[in-house]
C-alpha cells in the first residue's frame, strides 16, 4: 500500500499542486494515508518492510481509537475501517483506504476562483500524469470501447482502486472521443446504403460529400452569424443527425427523379419525339414538384423542433439545438440546389454517356416493328394551353407491353431508367386514385420485388384495405390503438421530472463507478466526503455579470455584490451569527434525502466565532468581543489577525479555513460564512435532493428572520445544487420547447407528398 501511494506522491508535478506547510514552500504530509498511519511523519519513499510487532501495535491503536467515545478520536480512526469491522471478533478490517488532498489556489493565482479555467486545466494536466503513472504501474491498457478502468489493478496480490472527479472527467472525455470513431462507421454505412439504393458510387459519393460539407458550413454560420463560440462534445452528435436527415432528403429527391420518367407527360413527350433537352427539363421539373414540398416540410418542422431547444436554460443544449437547426437548413438548401445538378451529371455521363443534352437533341430513332416495355400510366390529366399537366400519379402497372400507334420507339439506352423503374410498383391512395383500379391487385412478379415491397403489397396494404360490413376493420383498430397509445404517452410525458435514481455513468465493472459505491457502502462513516457540502454566507447581496457571455462560461464570470449594510462588529450581529450556527446544528429534516432526521451533521458545522471569541479573551485577559466599549477598528483588527494565525490550543481552524470563512476584501470585512455538511449524499437522486434543498431554504429563512440588517440575507448553497438546477432545467426545456414544436407540425404546409 505504501508503494502504491508513493507512485502518486513522488510524481514531480505533485510539488506544484500539494497542500503547503504554513510559511514554507514544501508539501504538507498527507495524513489520511496508510503510509502516514503506519510509518508516521517523514516516511521514506522506499517503503521499508515493517516488523510484525510494529504493524500489530498500529492496528491495535487504530481499533481502540475507533471504539473511543470521543468523536474527535473515533471518527478519524473509522475512516480506515470497512463497514463490517464492528461485527468481527477479534476486530479487524479487510478493506482500507487513503485520501490525498490537493492545495488551492495554485502558484501565481490569488484565489481558487482566479482564472478558474486556467487553474482547472493545470489540475487536469496533473491528473493526466496520475492516470498514466498508475496505468503503467499496474500494467493497464485501454482499448477501443473498452476502458482500462474495467480491468483489475493488482500489486503483489493487493487489489487497488482509485478515484478522483478529475479522473472521471478525463475518462468521460476519452470515452466520448472513442465513441466518436463510430461516426466513421456511420458514414460508411450510410454511404454504402445510398450506393446500394441508387446503384451508383458516383451519386453516393457526391451525396455523402454534400451531407458532410454541410457541417463545417453550418459551424461558420453558427459562430459568425449567431455569435456562439461554444462548442463541446455534445455538438459532435450533430454528425449523426445530419447523416440521417441528409440521407433521407437525398432518397426523397432521388425517388422523385426516378418516378418522373413514368409520368404521363414524360411518356407523351417520348412518344412525341421530343428532344432529350425538353424531356430532361420536364423530368427535373416533375421531380421538383413532387419532392421539394415534402423535403421542405420535413426540414422545416425538424428545424423548428431543434430551434425550440434554444429556449432551454441549459446553455449546451440550447446551442446544440441551434447548430442542429442550421445544419438541417443547409442540408435542405444543398438537396434542392446541388443534388439536382449531380443527378443530371450522372444521367448524362453514366446513363446517356454524353457531355451535353444538346448532343442528343435529335428525335428518337424509329423502328417500325420494335416493341418496348413501357409502364402503363393511369392518371388524371388536364390540358393547359398546348401542354399536358399531370395532376397525380396514381398507379404504375409493370411488365405491360404496348404498341406505339406512331411506331415511334425510344432507343434502349434512352429508356434505361424506365426499365429500372419497372422493377418497382408504386401506388398512392388518395382522392386522385382512379376508381377503376383495385388497390389490392398486384401484377408485379415476386422475383422483381424487394422484401419491403413484398411486405407493403402482400401484407400491409391488403390488411389496411380489408373491409368487413363496409368498414376497414384493421385500419380502424390501428387508428384507435395509436390514439390510445398517444393519450397514455402524453400522460406519462406530463409526469416527467428529474431522475428518481442516482445517475450511473459507467458500467458496473468500471473502477470509477465501483469506487463511488464502495466509498459510501463499504466503509464505516469516518468522513463526510460523500455528503453534500453546504455554505451559508452573510453579507452577500447578489452577483453582477455586466460583461458575461453565456456562450463563454469560463470568461468574465462576474463579481460578487456585497451588502453595504453588513457590519459584523455589533453584538447583535455576532449573536445572530451564533444563533445561525445553533439553528444549523439542530435543524430537522424529514425529507427522503436526509439521514438521522437532521439536515446537517452537528459535528460538521464550522462556526469560527466561538473560537475567535476564546482567542480574543485569552489574549486580552477575558474581554468579550461583544463588549460595547470595543471599537470597530479594534474588533476588525483583531479579527484580521486571528484570520492569519495557525491554530493554537483548542482552536481547530487552520489558517486556510479561516481565510475562507472570514472574508476580508481590500482590507475591509465584507462577508462571513458558516460551512457545514448536510446529511444528504451527493449521489442521492435529484428528485430527492430537490426536497432536501427545500429544507435548506427553510433553514436560511429561519436564520434570517429577526436578524439585524446586514445579517438577514444569508442563503444556503452547494456545488451539487448546480447539477440539481441543470436537471430541472432539462425538464423545463422539454416542456417549453414542446409548445412551439406542435404548432409547426400541425400548421406546416401539407402539399406535395409522394
Strand order of the largest sheet: 7-11-10
Class by helix and strand content? mainly alpha
Task: Note the main sheet.
Answer: 3 strands, antiparallel
Number of strands: 11
How much of the sequence is in beta strands? 5-15%
Poorly predicted segments:
355-443, 750-754
Overall outline: elongated
- What is the helix tally? 24
Question: What is the typical, i.e. mean, pLDDT?
Answer: 82
Radius of gyration: 37 Å
Distance between the termini: 70 Å
**Helix proportion of residues, in percent?**
40-55%
Q: Which secondary structure elements does this structure contain, and how are they paired or packed?
A:
Elements (H helix, E strand, L loop, with lengths): L1 H8 L4 H4 L16 H6 L12 H15 L4 H8 L37 H23 L14 E3 L2 E3 L4 H16 L1 H17 L2 H24 L8 H4 L1 H23 L3 H8 L4 H33 L6 H37 L20 E2 L2 E9 L2 E11 L3 E2 L13 H6 L29 H14 L8 H21 L17 H11 L9 E8 L1 E5 L14 E4 L8 H16 L22 H12 L11 H12 L11 H7 E4 L2 E14 L4 H19 L14 H29 L7
Antiparallel strand pairs: 1-2, 3-6, 4-5, 7-11, 8-9, 10-11
Helix pairs in contact: 4-5, 8-9, 8-11, 9-11, 9-14, 11-13, 11-14, 12-13, 13-14, 13-24, 19-23, 23-24
Amino acid at each position: 500500500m505504501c508503494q502504491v501511494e508513493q507512485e502518486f506522491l513522488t510524481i514531480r508535478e505533485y510539488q506544484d499542486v500539494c497542500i503547503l506547510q504554513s510559511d514554507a514552500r514544501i508539501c504538507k504530509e498527507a495524513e489520511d494515508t496508510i503510509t502516514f498511519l503506519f510509518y508516521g511523519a517523514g516516511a521514506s519513499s522506499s517503503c521499508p518492510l515493517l516488523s510484525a510487532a510494529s504493524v500489530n501495535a498500529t492496528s491495535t491503536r487504530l481499533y481502540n481509537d475507533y471504539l473511543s467515545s470521543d468523536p474527535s478520536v473515533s471518527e478519524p480512526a473509522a475512516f480506515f475501517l470497512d463497514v463490517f469491522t464492528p461485527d468481527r471478533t477479534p476486530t479487524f478490517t479487510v478493506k482500507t483506504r487513503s485520501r490525498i488532498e490537493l492545495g488551492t489556489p495554485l502558484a501565481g493565482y490569488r484565489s481558487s476562483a482566479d482564472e478558474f479555467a486556467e487553474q482547472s486545466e493545470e489540475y487536469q494536466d496533473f491528473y493526466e500524469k496520475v492516470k498514466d503513472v498508475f496505468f503503467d504501474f499496474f500494467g493497464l491498457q485501454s482499448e477501443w470501447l473498452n476502458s482500462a478502468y474495467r480491468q483489475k489493478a493488482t500489486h503483489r496480490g493487493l487489489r487497488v482502486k482509485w478515484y478522483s472527479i478529475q479522473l472521471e472527467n478525463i475518462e468521460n472525455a476519452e470515452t466520448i472521443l472513442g465513441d466518436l470513431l463510430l461516426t466513421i462507421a456511420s458514414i460508411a454505412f450510410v454511404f454504402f446504403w445510398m450506393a446500394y439504393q441508387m446503384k451508383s458510387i458516383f451519386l453516393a459519393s457526391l451525396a455523402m460529400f454534400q451531407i458532410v460539407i454541410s457541417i463545417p458550413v453550418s459551424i461558420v454560420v453558427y459562430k459568425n452569424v449567431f455569435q456562439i463560440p461554444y462548442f463541446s462534445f455534445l455538438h459532435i452528435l450533430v454528425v449523426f443527425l445530419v447523416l440521417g436527415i441528409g440521407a433521407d432528403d437525398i432518397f426523397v429527391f432521388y425517388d422523385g427523379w426516378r418516378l418522373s420518367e413514368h409520368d404521363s407527360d414524360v411518356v407523351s413527350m417520348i412518344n412525341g419525339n421530343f428532344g432529350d433537352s425538353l424531356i430532361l427539363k420536364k423530368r427535373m421539373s416533375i421531380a421538383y414538384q413532387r419532392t421539394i414540398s415534402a423535403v421542405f416540410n420535413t426540414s422545416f418542422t425538424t428545424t423548428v423542433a431543434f430551434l425550440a431547444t434554444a429556449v432551454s436554460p441549459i446553455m449546451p443544449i440550447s446551442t446544440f439545438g441551434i447548430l442542429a437547426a442550421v445544419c438541417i437548413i443547409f442540408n435542405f438548401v444543398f438537396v434542392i440546389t446541388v443534388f439536382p445538378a449531380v443527378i443530371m451529371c450522372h444521367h448524362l455521363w453514366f446513363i446517356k454517356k454524353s457531355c451535353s443534352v444538346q448532343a442528343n437533341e435529335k428525335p428518337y430513332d424509329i423502328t417500325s416493328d420494335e416493341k418496348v416495355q413501357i409502364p402503363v400510366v393511369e392518371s388524371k390529366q388536364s390540358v393547359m394551353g398546348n401542354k399536358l399537366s399531370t395532376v397525380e400519379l396514381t398507379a404504375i402497372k409493370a411488365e405491360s407491353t404496348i404498341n406505339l400507334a406512331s411506331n415511334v420507339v425510344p432507343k434502349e439506352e434512352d429508356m434505361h431508367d424506365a426499365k429500372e423503374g419497372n422493377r418497382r410498383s408504386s401506388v398512392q391512395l388518395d382522392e386522385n386514385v382512379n376508381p377503376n383500379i383495385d388497390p389490392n391487385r398486384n401484377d408485379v412478379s415476386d422475383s422483381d420485388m424487394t422484401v419491403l415491397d413484398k411486405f407493403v403489397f402482400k401484407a400491409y396494404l391488403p390488411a389496411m384495405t380489408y373491409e368487413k360490413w363496409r368498414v376497414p376493420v384493421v385500419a380502424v383498430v390501428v387508428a384507435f390503438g395509436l390514439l390510445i397509445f398517444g393519450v397514455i404517452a402524453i400522460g406519462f410525458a406530463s409526469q416527467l421530472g428529474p431522475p428518481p435514481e442516482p445517475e450511473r455513468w459507467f458500467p458496473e465493472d468500471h473502477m470509477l463507478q465501483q469506487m463511488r459505491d464502495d466509498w459510501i457502502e463499504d466503509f464505516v462513516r469516518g468522513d463526510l466526503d460523500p455528503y453534500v457540502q453546504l455554505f451559508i454566507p452573510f453579507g452577500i447581496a447578489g452577483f453582477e455579470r455586466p460583461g458575461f457571455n453565456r456562450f463563454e462560461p469560463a470568461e468574465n464570470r462576474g463579481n460578487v455584490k456585497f451588502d453595504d449594510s453588513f457590519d459584523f462588529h455589533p453584538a447583535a450581529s455576532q449573536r445572530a451569527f451564533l444563533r445561525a450556527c445553533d439553528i444549523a446544528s439542530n435543524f430537522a429534516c424529514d425529507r427522503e434525502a436526509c439521514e438521522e432526521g437532521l439536515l446537517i451533521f452537528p459535528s460538521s458545522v464550522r462556526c469560527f466565532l466561538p473560537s475567535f471569541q476564546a482567542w480574543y479573551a485569552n489574549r486580552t485577559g477575558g474581554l468579550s468581543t461583544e463588549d460595547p466599549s470595543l471599537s470597530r477598528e479594534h474588533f476588525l483588527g483583531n479579527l484580521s489577525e486571528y484570520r492569519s494565525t495557525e491554530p493554537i490550543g483548542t482552536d481547530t481552524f487552520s489558517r486556510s479555513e479561516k481565510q475562507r470563512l472570514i472574508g476580508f476584501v481590500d482590507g475591509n470585512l465584507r462577508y462571513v460564512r458558516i460551512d457545514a455538511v448536510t446529511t444528504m449524499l451527493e449521489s442521492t437522486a435529484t428528485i430527492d435532493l430537490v426536497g432536501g434543498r427545500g429544507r435548506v431554504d427553510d433553514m436560511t429563512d429561519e436564520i434570517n428572520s429577526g436578524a439585524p440588517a446586514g445579517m438577514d440575507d444569508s442563503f444556503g448553497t452547494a456545488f451539487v445544487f448546480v447539477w440539481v438546477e441543470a436537471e430541472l432545467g432539462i425538464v423545463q426545456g422539454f416542456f417549453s420547447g414542446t409548445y412551439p414544436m406542435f404548432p409547426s407540425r400541425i400548421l406546416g404546409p401539407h402539399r406535395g407528398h409522394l
